[in-house]
Amino acid sequence: MFLLSILSMSKITFFIVLLIFILIDLYAFQSFRVLFSSKIIRYVYWFISIVFYIIFLHFSFTFSPTNIKTFYFQFVIGFFALLYVPKLVISIPLLLEDIYRFFHFTFSKVFSSNSVSLERKKVVSMLALGIASIPFLGILYGITKGKYNFKLITQKLKFKDLPSNFNGFRILQLSDFHVGSFDNIDKVEKAIDFINSQKADLVVFTGDFVNLIAEEMLPHIDLFSKINSPNGVFSILGNHDYGTYAYGNDQEKLQKNRELLLEINKKLSYDLLLNENRKITKGNQHINIIGVENWGKAPFPQVGDLAKASEGISNEEFNVLLSHDPTHFDEKVKNFHKRIQLTLSGHTHGMQFGIEIPGFIKFSPSQFIYKKWAGLYKEKDKYLYVNRGFGYNAFPGRVGIWPEITVIELQSESQA
Length: 416
Description:
Blueprint: H1 2-7, H2 11-35, H3 39-62, H4 70-107, H5 114-144, E1 151-159, E2 169-174, H6 185-197, E3 202-205, H7 221-224, E4 233-235, H8 244-247, H9 251-268, E5 270-272, E6 276-282, E7 285-291, H10 306-309, E8 319-322, H11 327-333, E9 342-345, E10 355-357, E11 361-363, E12 375-379, E13 382-386, E14 404-412
Parallel strand pairs: 1-14, 2-3, 3-4, 4-5, 7-8, 8-9, 9-13
Antiparallel strand pairs: 2-14, 6-7, 10-11, 12-13
Helix pairs in contact: 2-3, 2-4, 2-5, 3-4, 4-5
């Protein structure tokens, strides 16, 4: 997260970034100054900006990765996004207009009158404010409504080697609860009721129960234990579940955090797979559910052990892998010597920001970090599905990348 990176900078770098914020403020203010003669509007503009500076400075100098107050942290990030994404959008047309005027002044022998220049400035300012209203309203919706705008996405995948008894077998995937972020449990409870109404054959959870520490899950055990299926619920750990963001390298606290999360999974009646596998049997046939601990590129933990997790499994069996980080697929899974027909991942959240119009556009800043960041991918006759996440983290909303409940139906090509 951009703001979290700023908080970790040196003080000199931090003040340079703060100066950039102020310059953006000054530039965006030009639109308000040109379009609105009312001093009240101008005072409100700077009052809101100054309030943000005060909050931002206070939070920056009291920030500690081991003692993050979740809702205060999310408030600062939400305030930042709501304020400065639109201001940045406003600044870009004004900057382009100033560049145009500079070259016009420098190279043209015919100069516009001040009135014409001012009129052009008004037009550009109106255009800038109009464009900026789009991200402003989008972010506002994402914070107030979008983070609970749960979407059901269904996929029907065909396999040559699926055991016939599992034709039509439905796996419901959830990922990235981040329960410490929830501020409306009623919405979450309705989502869980909807999950159970799908009557899937199996439910799997692909990591990140919490934001920082296992204790976040304690108030929600009764609620999340309601999730069920005829074949149970399998879970794995994500990078946020290890406690390293809160406890650093304090091994004693990390071990206690791990032990508590294992105990919580038992209370949830989730079968937590720690580099292990389980068989799901129907009649005289079975498929394997393999679960690895987190494996991601640095700085994320690399404790997943696919070889250990797949012990006792032959290459001829049908295998479904639960692996939190989708980079694991490219780095290890797709070339693994044992066949993994389907990998289910999460982790990216689609960065909780983007545009998705099926068949037309699929964009998120996440794609500049992850090659496979949301949805279905297929390579070497192996599938990867990346769930966009159930909850949210850091930024307290979702814009265009909605919280996801996935149902994947396994189909046999021979019975299609």
